[in-house]
Amino acid sequence: MKENLEQCIKQCVKNDRGAQLELYQLFSPVLYGLCLKYMRNEDDAKDVFQEAFVIVFQKIGQYKFEGSFEGWIKRIFINKLLETLKKKKKDVLFLDAFDTNITAEEEIELAPIEQEKLLEYIQELPDQYRMVFNLFVFEKMKHREIAKLLDINEGTSKSNLNRAKAILKKRILVVLNSKTA
Amino acid sequence: MKNKEAKSVFSSLENFSSIPPPELWDNIEAQLEKPKKKRRAIIWWSVAASLVVGILVPSILYFNSNQGNTFELNQENTIVLEKGTDQKKNVPIEEEGKEIIKSHDNKENSATKKVENAISNTNNSVASQNNSAVPSKTKKQIRLKSTNQAVVSTDVKQQSNTPDKNKARTSVYQPKSSVAVNNSFQGSNSNGNIKSSANNENTTVPNLNKNNQVAEIAVSKSIVEKNNSQSNSALKGNSESKTTNSNAENSGSNRGNEIAQNTNQKDSLATIKKEVAQLETALANLDKDKTKKKIDAKDTDKWSLQVFAGVMSSENYSNEKALGNTVESKQSNGYGVKTNYKLNKKWTVSSGFKINELGQKIAGVSYYEQQAGLMGALPASPVVSNVDAFSSKNSTEIVSISSNDNYLFASNPTANSSKSLATGNVTQNLKYFEMPLEVSYSLLNKKKTSINMNTGGFVGKLISNEVLLNGSSIGENKNVNEYVYGTLLSSTLQYEFLKKTKFFIEPGMNYYINPLENQSFNQFQWMFNIGLNVSF
Fold first, then answer.
1. What local confidence, expressed as pLDDT, does residue B513 receive?
2. Which of B13-17, B144-148, B217-221, B426-430 has the lowest mean pLDDT?
3. In the prediction, which pLDDT does A73 show?
4. Are the C-beta atoms of residues B204 and B174 closer than 8 Å to each other?
5. CB-based contacts of B129: which residues, under 8 Å, 6+ apart?
6. B94: which of A14, B59, B64, B197 is 20 to 30 A away, CA to CA?
7. What global pTM score does this model have?
8. Which residue in B366, B477, B354, B480 sits closest to B415, CA to CA?
9. Do residues A127 and A40 make contact, with C-beta atoms less than 8 angstroms apart?
10. DSSP string, B52-100
11. pLDDT of residue B487
């Protein structure tokens, strides 16, 4: 498998369309899922997905077979996703000064919710919250790293994450309540 | 929700994958087949062009001005010493001197005209760039507007898509309704009748154009009412009914029964609705403020102020000779302030003022010092006495370059005459108050680092003029022009070490077109500035 992938990458460097398709088929589900998590809707996700994949094929020669290829390709996608979100100037404001009364809520057992619903709630988050939330929860990045990546301070990253979680929690609770009612 | 909790709830999404629509591969393939953009080539061409212009212009000016720049002095300052000559002999020499000066003047005039033309051309080009900046700014504003529209339209699109997808989207800009709508539907409408939600969401679009919080609250209230009416109607199974105001009011009257049945849920729903509405309203307001601030900041960031100081070295690259000796380089220093205005992402114009010094050294110059006794017999006008005293077979030019007539210098002294002359080092310093006008092109702008190429011209006014003989001042140089013109080429490497504050180094060169009349002087100058650039 690993050797196959290596061979496939080498063929992609040579611009072999067959190998490129093979690579696409191998990674596109995960990467498309990634795009859906970061972007507000499917149309935006499609746009970024296409652009990022083109970049991957253009820069694949720069991959030195050090570290995981999936990590490398994911990094390109995340960079592209963040870049696209940052370009949406109106949405990209990080609400560091904003302070509401959202504090730690009482602990409630959260029953599992459908993947699609969760994805929908994440997509509905404001861009800045969604970026921080995704990077923290799914990419397992630390606030320091997020702050550096998004050019914000650590405090902003933390407060954005808290707000994202507060909004999500409320959304989930409403659904759970409606189910139990 | 604690971190662990959030992670566990969303762990199902950690490796979330979804098969992309098949047409995406076709699009990617089409893009891969497109020829690569020649953006890099364009950048390199523009760099090369600016370098060529920056180097060619000073070079042409330099070589043009050199054609008439032999060491010929004013007739007033020139005395030819010949053995056995008398005053009569001086007459043709003076006339000859006049001719030389005339021809020299002609050449200089033509050179000066060229320079003036070049400068006016440069100014025109700068002016045209300034003019071109105006539409670009307008474009930017238009683009900004269109972006805003796009945001609105996207939101509207999402809203209009919502019924089809059976999804209601939340946006920061129309949150009062959309979140509430979602909640109400998810809370009570299992059939997912979203037709009326689209109506509701559409009603929020005008809110985007309103800053009036009261209006927003009013709309929020109406939305909540509508939501309730929708939930009621949904519960009644009336999935096809479209929400109207009258329907909302009618169904609103029946709400009490439903609330009584689901008091707890409704209470929590209402609280959540309220909180989310408040949160989103505040977010929207904050967004507006921040956007305003950002736009303002972007506008103000167009200006920056540079304070700099540096060392300069005036060079003699054409082996010019003065007073019979090779002109040597001279180090000096300068400082100044410059204001930059960013026309667009790549181009910047700047102007300011600068105190700069141009200088030269001439070692081993033969001179006469009247007070030292050697020239003690000379009258105030040393013409005849000089000739008798220091005449030799070959002619020796005695010149007075300094405003102090006690010091006379010999150009090409003969063996005989040099016996009677002292030798010393002459240093000349010319300090100018300069006003540059520069155009900068950004070659690289990455995060905190930027590299710019700058070219332009300057005009300088003489503020200090000093001739030193063996380190002691002997007055001013008589032949110095009050105003000087020049061109410059430099490269600025900047690093932002504080917010809005950059440290920069700036190697470059200046070319002075006309520092002195009828006398050789260093015209090229290397410079190395360091300074701070503050954006505001």
1. 85
2. B144-148
3. 92
4. yes
5. B343, B347, B349, B439
6. B64
7. 0.38
8. B366
9. yes
10. HHHHHHHHHHHHHHHTT-SS---GGG-EEE-TT--HHHHHHHHHHHHHH
11. 92
On whether any CB of chain B is under 8 Å from the CB of A173, the answer is: yes
- Token code pair at residue A47: 């746009």
pLDDT score recorded for residue B273: 73
Q: Which residues pair with B312 in a beta bridge?
A: B332, B527
Terminal C-alpha separation, chain A: 50
The Cα B260–Cα B267 span in angstroms is: 10
Correct CATH for A115-180 of 1.10.760.10, 1.20.1050.10, 1.10.10.10, 1.20.120.450: 1.10.10.10
- The whole-angstrom separation of Cα B176 and Cα B191 is 23
Highest mean pLDDT, choosing among A85-94, B256-265, B406-415, B498-507: B498-507
Contacts of B278 in chain A (CB under 8 A): 100
CB-based contact B359:B522 (threshold 8 Å): yes
* Interchain pair B269, A122: CB under 8 A: no
Say whether domain B41-138+301-535 belongs to CATH 2.40.160.20.
yes
Structure tokens at B505: 């180094």
Q: So what's the pLDDT on residue B265?
A: 60
Q: Do A41 and B2 touch (CB under 8 A)?
A: no
Substitution target from B4, B12, B28 for chain A, most A beta carbons within 10 A: B28
Structure tokens at B421: 């002359």
Q: Which amino acid is at A17?
A: R
Burial of B183-220, coded b for 16+ CB within 10 Å and e otherwise, reads: bbbbbbbeeebbebbbbbbebbbebbeeeeeeebeebb
Chain B's closest residue to A165, CA to CA, is: B1
Q: Name the band, by pLDDT with cuts 50, 70 and 90, for residue A132.
A: very high
Which of A170, A176, A180 should one mutate to test binding to chain B, selecting the residue with the greatest count of B CBs within 10 A?
A170
Angle between helices B213-235 and B195-204 (to 10 degrees): 180
Contact B477, B467 (CB under 8 A): yes
- Mean pLDDT for B246-266 is 51
Pick the CATH number of A2-87 from 1.10.1740.10, 3.30.420.40, 3.10.25.10, 3.30.420.10: 1.10.1740.10
Residue B88 predicted with pLDDT over 90: no
ipTM, interface predicted TM-score of the complex: 0.79
Structural domain boundaries in chain A: 2-87, 115-180
